């Protein structure tokens, strides 16, 4: 029998590059686009309402925000503020949702003599940005706050953005190998330093201010401001042969369930070069204070493209370049779910 097709949660009208979930508001934020090329594919950020209906996750489009000629390649979320990586720039957006107040009883009351009741229209769209609100009774606005260039290589591209624990700062990394830290919401630069030779692939900010960066130079580094604290040493102690170089693809901090002060770092390691018989990728848990490895497990031969940690720190979600998703228990790194879908099951988990 063939694999059962997973029900589709949402189909975007543009290539998707970034997803974020706000569990408190039940929002899914999806972004992407066709870029500056005149292909007819729009660039945008879509805001969707997530609901459980009859045991299944459902998404309905609340609002679409036009990003004009720039596709959003990466996102970070802090309350109602989005940091969107668009080409070599970071754009700060603030969104607000308001339920329209219902009419009073006198206005609602009517009779046949008064004529048929008019259907309530949707909230007005934002004319300036080409935005559109799609649900009746909802006022949804998106405001452009600030924009700044965050990468300065020959072919500049911001690859990752991350807020700190109290959302007062955000860090960016890109193809020039530099980390830049900015105040929120002014985007005043407060720190800049060279972290890697080559592209920065991912970064994670811990609650104690430590910053972990991973790059194409095969290194994973821990920083306190611009001072190197330590480097992660997986290849030297890992289950691979020295003639198979690996690089760190992703890094995320996560809470330790039932330990309020506990902290874990999770990383994904992938083969640096694709071989005819590809070796496995690996998932590793590290102590969040000493940055020593706790356990590591192979996670399949498909190349891992993204890593997510549930808000409680209980589960990990992995996505591959072929579109499959796997969910692991964070404590044991035991796989509990594997499906050849997009990300709907991970979204249900993270809610």
From TrEMBL:
It is found in: Endoplasmic reticulum membrane; Nucleus. One of its GO terms (biological process) is endoplasmic reticulum to Golgi vesicle-mediated transport. WD repeats lie at residues 161-192. This is Prolactin regulatory element-binding protein. SUPFAM superfamilies: Quinoprotein alcohol dehydrogenase-like. GO terms for molecular function: guanyl-nucleotide exchange factor activity. The gene is PREB. The lineage of its organism: Eukaryota, Metazoa, Chordata, Craniata, Vertebrata. It comes from Odocoileus virginianus (White-tailed deer). Was first identified based on its probable role in the regulation of pituitary gene transcription. Binds to the prolactin gene (PRL) promoter and seems to activate transcription. Guanine nucleotide exchange factor (GEF) that regulates the assembly of the coat protein complex II/COPII in endoplasmic reticulum (ER) to Golgi vesicle-mediated transport. Selectively activates SAR1A and SAR1B by promoting the exchange of guanosine diphosphate (GDP) for guanosine triphosphate (GTP) in these small GTPases. Belongs to the WD repeat SEC12 family. Keywords: Endoplasmic reticulum, ER-Golgi transport, Membrane, Protein transport, Repeat, Transmembrane, Transmembrane helix, Transport, WD repeat. Pfam families: WD40. Interacts with SAR1B (GDP-bound form). Interacts with MIA2; recruits PREB to endoplasmic reticulum exit sites. Residues 104-116, 125-134 have a biased composition (Basic and acidic residues). One of its GO terms (cellular component) is endoplasmic reticulum membrane.
């Amino acid at each position: 029998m063939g694999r059962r097709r997973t029900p589709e949660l949402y189909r975007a009208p543009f290539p998707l590059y970034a997803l974020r979930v706000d569990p408190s508001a039940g929002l899914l934020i999806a972004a992407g686009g066709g870029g500056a090329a005149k292909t007819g594919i729009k660039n945008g950020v879509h805001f969707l309402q997530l609901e459980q209906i009859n045991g299944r996750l459902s998404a309905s489009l609340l609002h679409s925000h036009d990003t004009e000629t720039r596709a959003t390649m990466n996102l970070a979320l802090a309350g109602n503020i989005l940091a969107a990586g668009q080409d070599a720039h970071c754009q700060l957006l603030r969104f607000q949702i308001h339920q329209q107040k219902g009419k009073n009883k006198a206005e609602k009351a009517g009779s046949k003599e008064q004529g048929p009741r008019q259907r309530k229209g949707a909230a007005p769209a934002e004319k300036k940005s080409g935005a559109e609100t799609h649900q009746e009774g909802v006022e949804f606005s998106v405001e452009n706050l600030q924009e700044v260039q965050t990468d300065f290589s020959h072919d500049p591209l911001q690859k990752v953005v991350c807020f700190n624990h109290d959302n007062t700062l955000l860090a960016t990394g890109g193809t020039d190998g530099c980390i830049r830290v900015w105040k929120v919401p002014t985007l005043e630069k407060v720190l800049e330093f060279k972290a890697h030779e080559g592209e920065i692939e991912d970064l994670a900010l811990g609650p104690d201010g430590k910053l972990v960066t991973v790059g194409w130079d095969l290194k994973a580094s821990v920083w306190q401001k611009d001072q190197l604290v330590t480097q992660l040493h997986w290849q030297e102690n890992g289950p691979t042969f020295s003639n198979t170089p690996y690089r760190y693809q992703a890094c995320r901090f996560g809470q330790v369930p039932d330990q309020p002060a506990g902290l874990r770092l999770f990383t994904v390691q992938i083969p640096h070069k694709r071989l005819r018989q590809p070796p496995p990728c690996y998932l590793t848990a590290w102590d969040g204070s000493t940055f020593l490895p706790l356990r590591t497990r192979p996670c399949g031969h498909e190349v891992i493209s993204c890593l997510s940690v549930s808000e409680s720190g209980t589960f990990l979600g992995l996505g591959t370049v072929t579109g499959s998703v796997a969910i692991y228990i964070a404590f044991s790194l035991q796989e509990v779910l594997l499906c050849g879908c997009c990300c709907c099951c991970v979204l249900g988990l993270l809610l």
